[in-house]
Amino acid sequence: MTAQIIDGKAFAASIREKVAGHVARLREDHGLKPGLAVVLVGEDPASQVYVRSKGKMTLEVAMASFEHRLPAETSEADLLALVETLNGDPEVHGILVQLPLPPHLNSDLVINAIDPAKDVDGFHISNVGLLGTGQKAMVPCTPLGCLMMLRAQLGSLSGLEAVVVGRSNIVGKPMAMLLLGDSCTVTMAHSRTRDLADVVRRADIVVVAVGRTEMVRGDWIKAGATVIDVGMNRVPGEGGKTRLVGDVDFESASARAGAITPVPGGVGPMTIACLLANTVTACCRANG
Ligand code: GUN
């Protein structure tokens, strides 16, 4: 079997187009302009790339973009003061503090200082609780993007065996909650799971977010399964350049899977598209 390639780039472009339409209607009908504030502390190169890309795409859908770049040595008090200011700013509907923060800053404290209604990352403890109890929550962007691709690919997910590999707060845990919400039978596996290959072999749906280059091999995949690769690992490429690869060995996995996301061009573009969609949602909820 040769897997169908799930085109996250095209899917994300269609979501951004819908978001742009929604933004235009909010402006014309209600005089509203959704605004997204992104806070970057320090100079982590990968974070700088993401933040630049978020700012560019925010402007492309005609939303307001507010970027706050703070030095790595910023104190916790100063960062919390900025979050408070953004919480109180009526032009800001969504706030994203780029992670990871420098080690002297307590990310839990900072994230939980964000107004939950503006928490477009869905990382605030109240949004985590709302999602976990099946209530209306801000849903984390990466797992939301994965869920949208799975629904588009498979239709109803009800009763399917889903294995999530990776237990991070950003992807693995919320992904498991979303799949449970769609009535999958969910197994949360991780790097310490015993007989991981056998666990993955049970799955109709495999979502991998462990941050380990090409860890999941083709012979771990049940024939016809749908594979979502959240990994983004930089490895040495040709001519001294680096190239991006996932947590799944694409070549062997695509020989067995029914459908698979590529890296790059799979999950990555969906994350930012969902962030923009969450910001529109936050703006609509803030304005009744
Ligand atoms: N760092 C890596 N992914 C994310 C994300 O989705 N949100 C934030 N805030 N930081 C990240």
UniProtKB/TrEMBL annotation:
<comment type="subunit">
    <text>Homodimer.</text>
</comment>
<comment type="function">
    <text>Catalyzes the oxidation of 5,10-methylenetetrahydrofolate to 5,10-methenyltetrahydrofolate and then the hydrolysis of 5,10-methenyltetrahydrofolate to 10-formyltetrahydrofolate.</text>
</comment>
<keyword id="KW-0028">Amino-acid biosynthesis</keyword>
<dbReference type="GO" id="GO:0000105">
    <property type="term" value="P:L-histidine biosynthetic process"/>
</dbReference>
<keyword id="KW-0511">Multifunctional enzyme</keyword>
<dbReference type="GO" id="GO:0004488">
    <property type="term" value="F:methylenetetrahydrofolate dehydrogenase (NADP+) activity"/>
</dbReference>
<dbReference type="InterPro" id="IPR020631">
    <property type="entry name" value="THF_DH/CycHdrlase_NAD-bd_dom"/>
</dbReference>
<comment type="pathway">
    <text>One-carbon metabolism; tetrahydrofolate interconversion.</text>
</comment>
<feature type="domain" description="Tetrahydrofolate dehydrogenase/cyclohydrolase catalytic">
    <location>
        <begin position="6"/>
        <end position="121"/>
    </location>
</feature>
<dbReference type="InterPro" id="IPR046346">
    <property type="entry name" value="Aminoacid_DH-like_N_sf"/>
</dbReference>
<dbReference type="GO" id="GO:0009086">
    <property type="term" value="P:methionine biosynthetic process"/>
</dbReference>
<keyword id="KW-0486">Methionine biosynthesis</keyword>
<dbReference type="GO" id="GO:0006164">
    <property type="term" value="P:purine nucleotide biosynthetic process"/>
</dbReference>
<comment type="similarity">
    <text>Belongs to the tetrahydrofolate dehydrogenase/cyclohydrolase family.</text>
</comment>
<dbReference type="GO" id="GO:0004477">
    <property type="term" value="F:methenyltetrahydrofolate cyclohydrolase activity"/>
</dbReference>
<dbReference type="InterPro" id="IPR020630">
    <property type="entry name" value="THF_DH/CycHdrlase_cat_dom"/>
</dbReference>
<keyword id="KW-0554">One-carbon metabolism</keyword>
<feature type="domain" description="Tetrahydrofolate dehydrogenase/cyclohydrolase NAD(P)-binding">
    <location>
        <begin position="140"/>
        <end position="285"/>
    </location>
</feature>
<dbReference type="InterPro" id="IPR020867">
    <property type="entry name" value="THF_DH/CycHdrlase_CS"/>
</dbReference>
<feature type="binding site">
    <location>
        <begin position="166"/>
        <end position="168"/>
    </location>
    <ligand>
        <name>NADP(+)</name>
    </ligand>
</feature>
<dbReference type="InterPro" id="IPR000672">
    <property type="entry name" value="THF_DH/CycHdrlase"/>
</dbReference>
<keyword id="KW-0368">Histidine biosynthesis</keyword>
<keyword id="KW-0560">Oxidoreductase</keyword>
<protein>
    <recommendedName>
        <fullName>Bifunctional protein FolD</fullName>
        <ecNumber>1.5.1.5</ecNumber>
        <ecNumber>3.5.4.9</ecNumber>
    </recommendedName>
</protein>
<dbReference type="GO" id="GO:0005829">
    <property type="term" value="C:cytosol"/>
</dbReference>
<dbReference type="Pfam" id="PF00763">
    <property type="entry name" value="THF_DHG_CYH"/>
</dbReference>
<dbReference type="InterPro" id="IPR036291">
    <property type="entry name" value="NAD(P)-bd_dom_sf"/>
</dbReference>
<keyword id="KW-0521">NADP</keyword>
<dbReference type="Pfam" id="PF02882">
    <property type="entry name" value="THF_DHG_CYH_C"/>
</dbReference>
<keyword id="KW-0378">Hydrolase</keyword>
<keyword id="KW-0658">Purine biosynthesis</keyword>
<dbReference type="GO" id="GO:0035999">
    <property type="term" value="P:tetrahydrofolate interconversion"/>
</dbReference>
